[in-house]
TrEMBL record, chains A, B:
Organism: Roseicyclus persicicus
Record's protein name: FAD-binding oxidoreductase
Annotated region described as Disordered, given as residue ranges: 416-445
Domain FAD-binding PCMH-type: 42-216
Biased composition (Basic and acidic residues): 424-434
Length: 470, 470
């Protein structure tokens, strides 16, 4: 059925909409441009209109009206995702949830809130309320929303202690609205959470979240420099295995990335320095300094609570996770990245192998995280991009070595994940989005069930590029 | 030199002393009688006098006066240790620190306190102050002191998350008084902590502690029953490896120990039920119940926040750690125990092997703990005691299989530990206790440097038994 965009837009006139074409274009885009592959494929995509509901009732109305008029709805928070999660593949309606930013309840160990609140504001609220903060956040903490993080993220700062969002206990409850003739409101807990978390809003819209909290501390942010990359990686692995030293972040950046890309750190290091970024609980600093003292090859060059740097580097976590790539891109636009899983117990050997094979074309950027109880590493490797073919070859080299890739140069859930259908998400999409209007084109198993993943999926119904349309 | 007990006692007349012979005897004894071997060796030991200082100044005075008169000083908190840590081997002065129980400061993540405060009272203070509690405690939480725990313990409830007391970061600072002509007051942090923590008060007396805190939650206490022991052990191991589910305790008790020894649990289980005891953070209960739902062979028979048990079992942690042995002893006085280290990654195979070889003579009691970042198990195996020779043989069987034993049938630091001198503790004793008067007989390397550990150490200067003295 053809969408009747004009009718839907008119029927939603009482809900806040953006009319300025520049605003509409800006609010149609996320951080897909980290990937030259996605940039080429998605740069032309744009919503027909943008709505900004203020309540669950308004979300329900948007979904009801768009369902009636067969208009696709792509939902987003701040649009800081890098997989093109929030790009409207067939135009239609882009729904922003930034106005739904209320904190409803805070209790010891948990918070109930709306999806559109910034991670930063949620943390500020919980800290002020009772000295608490969320267990983990993306490096886009200052600009991203909790709903976008849950729908489009997988982990981040805090994962070195708490594991990933998909781990049991890291999301308590999600309240979700379906896209049907009469949208339903459902509450998901336990096994049901996997239906809609990290589903890019393809099968329901999150209108309320209940998340676990951890104590908020005045984390001491630290940079340590070491000359040997593998020694730095082993240092970080061993530190993260110290059960009595509470960390929130432990990142490793292979030389010369810190010197070349971290402009405020550059005056304090040399080109051959591998850098380690850390967040350490203040009451763990004695333990950390003791650990550090056992490693004479490690130099602490910065600590946020005591330093003589004329210019602050800003939050150390804004050098980690996907901010690393962002900083590199600002200096060298040809840089892109990969997301790699270096699982325990082969993680150190695998990292060394990939580095031996690919450095400096691929520079290692590692984040220590817990996976099934064991410290291992997520790699967000910096890749000097040449061609799509070479990028695919680099991906293949990782996979052949046993390093799982979550390919950030693909816009579907499956290709950015484990290259196979998630039956729970697909089954729930059948229930919750019978017309397939929610964030279309992002779930291969919905559109093309027999896709074999041998090459990049191309959504057939995607809005064609202007030149192709001529 | 002969001790001049009477002179010392008289010189300390202005400090509180116990005069009642029954009190003196009671205050001379710890829980050494868990071990039939120690019971035979130590039952006759008794202090000549007992002092109860109220301040660090009084501690200094006790140590100065006893030094001058060559009187041994054995220091204790509540005397709940099981290794005979606090038994006065040569009589003399027993110094109780229960009057030194002040909390001095509480900050986010840490507390500064005196050694004599009960673990229970310290937790109550910190929870009331700011919703915090200590990271770990012994199962004798209700009766033991923080100073005794640090000087004589190694870990406990909370170690499933935070590891052991010896791990960097689990003690921040200790203030220590030496026993010299003029006692010195020293502050130890970092590497220096290892000199005096878990040293049984053999080389200095702790007068102030700075300890890390964790958030205090209303932990949900749980019993789960399973028919298969190894399935229960794997369940507990997998649960403790769930990074998003916050636990404080995860214990496994092989059948029929729960049925035979846990009288309040008995009506709810059968003789062939292996029992799992858990403490789960309330905001992790959804995650836990999801995990539980994946194990249809696991029955949750009790949760403290919702149950229909006519009679409460009391705190679930009072079934774990060394309370297990205590409960077994009350029913069967022939029971004793071992402390075993089942290290990662062989822990499950090793447990199965020892059980196959020794059950039911030795019943498995396991506590999940983190060791160097990995979940593994401490075994506090219940042993049906027959002879000392058989007990030694059981110890040998464990060691030959690769399961390290911390032998609780020995009263020296070395034999209860890793069977070798701790050079840091010995070196500091040379500085801090030049006359060797602090808790004499507990450090083999001080008294008998060339001891070969082939058999039980017998302190030559120990007060002889009355019959032997006749």
């Amino acid at each position: 059925m053809q969408p009747n965009v004009a009718a839907a837009k008119a029927a939603l006139a009482h809900i806040e909409q953006d009319e300025n074409p520049a605003t509409i274009r800006a609010k149609s885009r996320d951080f897909f441009w980290y990937s030259p592959v996605l940039k080429e494929a998605m740069d032309h995509l744009e919503a027909d209109f943008v709505v900004n509901p203020k309540s669950e009732a308004e979300v329900i109305e948007v979904l009801r009206v768009c369902y009636a008029h067969d208009v696709p709805v792509t939902t987003r928070g701040a649009g800081t995702g890098n997989y093109g999660q929030a790009m409207p593949m067939r135009g239609g309606c882009v729904m922003h949830l930034r106005h739904m930013a209320a904190v409803k309840e805070v209790h010891p160990g948990r918070v109930i809130c709306e999806p559109g609140i910034l991670l930063k504001d949620l943390d500020a609220y919980c800290k002020e309320h009772s000295g608490q903060e969320i267990r983990m956040f993306s490096s886009t903490w200052a600009t991203a929303t909790i709903g976008g993080f849950i729908a489009g993220g997988s982990g981040g700062v805090g994962s070195v202690h708490w594991g990933s969002l998909r781990d049991l206990g890291n999301i308590i409850r999600l309240r979700v609205v379906t896209m049907e003739a009469e949208p339903r409101v459902l509450e998901f807990r336990g096994e049901e959470l996997a239906r809609v978390s990290h589903a890019y809003g393809t099968n329901g819209i999150i209108t309320e979240l209940e998340m676990p909290l951890a104590p908020a501390y005045d984390w001491v942010e630290i940079f340590v420099a070491m000359k040997d990359f593998m020694a730095a990686t082993r240092f970080t692995d061993a530190l993260a295995n110290q059960d009595g030293i509470l960390l929130k972040l432990a990142s490793v950046y292979e030389a010369p990335a810190p010197y070349d890309y971290f402009t405020r750190v550059k005056p304090h290091i040399e080109a051959d320095d591998t850098l380690i970024g850390l967040m350490v609980a203040p009451h763990s600093m004695d333990g950390f300094l003791t650990f550090l003292g056992r490693h004479p090859d490690a130099r602490m060059i910065y600590r946020s609570d005591a330093n003589d740097w004329p210019r602050t580097p800003g939050p150390v976590f804004e050098y980690g996770w996907n901010h690393t790539t962002l900083r590199a891109l600002k200096v060298d636009p040809s840089i892109t990245y990969l997301q790699v899983r270096y699982g325990f117990p082969e993680h150190l050997a695998l990292i060394e192998k990939m580095r031996d094979a690919l450095s400096p074309e691929v520079l290692q950027h590692l984040e220590a995280i817990r996976m099934e109880g064991k410290i291992a590493f997520a790699g967000l490797s910096l890749v000097k991009f040449t061609t799509k073919e070479r990028l695919d070859e680099i991906v293949r080299m990782h996979e052949e070595a046993g390093a799982l890739i979550f390919n950030p140069h693909r816009y579907t859930l499956e290709e950015g994940g484990r290259q196979s259908a998630d039956q729970r998400q697909l089954d729930f999409k059948r229930e919750a989005d019978p017309k397939g209007l929610l964030n279309p084109g992002k779930m291969v198993s919905w559109d093309t069930p027999d896709f074999d993943y041998s090459e990049m999926y191309r959504y057939p119904a995607m809005t064609p590029k202007p030149e192709a349309a001529e």
